[in-house]
Amino acid sequence: MSRITPTAPLRPHRSRIAVTALTAAIVMGTGIGLAPVTQAVEAPTAATASQTLPTTTRFVDIAGYEGVTLAANVVAPTDTSRGYPVIVLPTSWAMPQIEYIAQATKLAEKGYVVVSYNVRGFWQSEGEIEVAGPKDVADARKVIDWALANTAADPELIGMAGVSYGAGISLLTAAQDARVDAVSAMSGWADLVESLYKGETQHTQATAILASLGYATGRPSAEAAEKMEIMLSGKTDRIDEVIPWAEQRSVVHQVDRLNTNDTAIMLANAWGDSFFAPNQYASFYEKLSGPKRLELRPGDHATAEGLGLLGLPNDVWNNTFRWFDHHLKGVQNGIDAEEPVQLKSRSGGEYEGYASWATVPSRTQNLRFRDDEDILPQLESGANAGISFLSSMLDQFARVSPTVSIPLLPSISAAVWQTERYDTVQKVRGTPTMRATVTSNRSDGTVVAYLYSVNGLGIGELVSHGPVSFHGKTPGQPFTLDVEMFSTAYDVPAGNRLALVIDGVDTLYNNYNTAFQAIDFAGGAELNVPLR
Question: Which residues 6+ apart lie within 8 Å of 398 measured at CB?
Fold first, then answer.
């Protein structure tokens, strides 16, 4: 039986809650011999929900799917005389079960039961790493069952949250379990294929980091180990084995379930996420029909919310608390009145609000470069997107992006086109794209397109980039090459140019270029830049 108390108001937009409340009012009215009356009940405000409650912390073992023991901890108010919303927090990849203790304590002090657990295969939890497979989702549902049976958790008020791996598992679980009312998915993924194989190019540096951490802190299953080996090999002959496996772990293919469940979903990511680029989150966001919010800001994978794990003030966690307060407690804190898409430029400034991702750019500048270019893509040019974590962290904290001297780029390995200088600031907002007609003397190959902001000295600062590979082309026959770069928010200063640079080598990615390969950009290239 659900509990209705003034201090734990139910989520207002759920139809089942409205029916329960109406039924209770009718029963109460007729039970005392009076006609039912309508009474306005003021929803809690942020001020009334800010009281701090005493809490307790305990470490427990929870039986997951097929009896696998999951190491967990529970942080909850000491007063168990009433029910509280419950938040389930699956841990990030390679992180121990104490990862969320600081934020769990803050949530418990606000009147939540918080259960955090080590996902299977890592640290003290039993089982093997399944990479957010069906067993991981089944585990999460078992943790919810355990919380409802062993804590003062209200079965009608359930939320999930997590960073990275925990975010992915939270979204997948919410799609499978209609009991989950609200989710905050931080630095996660919605499309694992897009994340690991964008542009049909293996993201080998990110995969290598994940695989190394997985083996160092856990026990990959035979299937997971095989898929990671295929991704790291750089070979294409077995990539078709990875794609269905990754699609099964991609909530974008289960978006209809989330929409049917009317789950309130908050997505947060960083512009420079080395693992899960913002494009796939933004595309997924547009497919959601229920309550939703998208936040994108400077940083790399999990760096935007990382300091919050230490209990320090943090925008992502603050908004996560507001999200749960509103959608689980009914607190009128204004989060529903804000524009649902919140972006922070890499160039600084305040957050910008938009009605949707599609309305972020107000116009697109189409640039047609007609000069022919030829490159030897197997040679390093000096243009690159930096190093996983380090480069985007410098961008986040010091506003220092990867740079290159555009005039010094060797023409033998880099195609370069530039605009005239801009008289005014150009606010790039969204996803730049590039299209070109190319001819290769090899059937397979890779190119990486870079967009730079170039100052008067010719120094280019990276605005965005994107890889793309081609396979099975007829040597000597022209074909169209499209590159979708990574979404970004960047202000090109007045007096600067934009430069489109294309080469074939970047240490972030595998490439399929071979010796004596040549790629001809006959007719130049077309660049589309989204602007605010």
Answer: none
d(CA 95, CA 118): 8
Q: What are the φ/ψ torsions at residue 115 (nearest 5 degrees)?
A: -115, 115
CA angle 430, 435, 440 (to 5 degrees): 140
Three-state secondary structure call for residue 90 = strand
pLDDT category of residue 286 using cuts at 50, 70 and 90: very high
Distance (Å, whole) CA 402 – CA 386? 6
- Residue with token string 């022209």: 478
Buried b / exposed e along 115-143 (16+ C-beta atoms within 10 A): bbbbbbbbeebbbbbbbbbebbbbbbbbb
Of 305, 304, 281, 294, nearest in space to 339 by CA: 294
pLDDT band at 388 (very low <50, low <70, confident <90, very high): confident
Q: How many CB atoms lie within 10 A of CB 344?
A: 20
**Which amino acid is present at 184?**
S
Report the amino acid identity of residue 436: A
Residue at token pair 């749960």: 324
CA 269, 271, 275, 281: dihedral to nearest 10 degrees? Answer: 50
Quote the DSSP letter at residue 118: P
Beta bridge partners of 483: 434
Distance CA 113, CA 151 (A): 7
pLDDT at 32 over 90: no
Q: Residue 31, class by beta-carbon neighbours within 10 Å (0-12 exposed, 13-18 middle, 19+ buried)? A: exposed
Domains of the chain: 55-354 (3.40.50.1820), 363-531 (2.60.120.260)
Closest CA to 147 of 65, 60, 53: 60
* pLDDT tens-place string over residues 359-382: 999 999 999 999 999 999 999 999
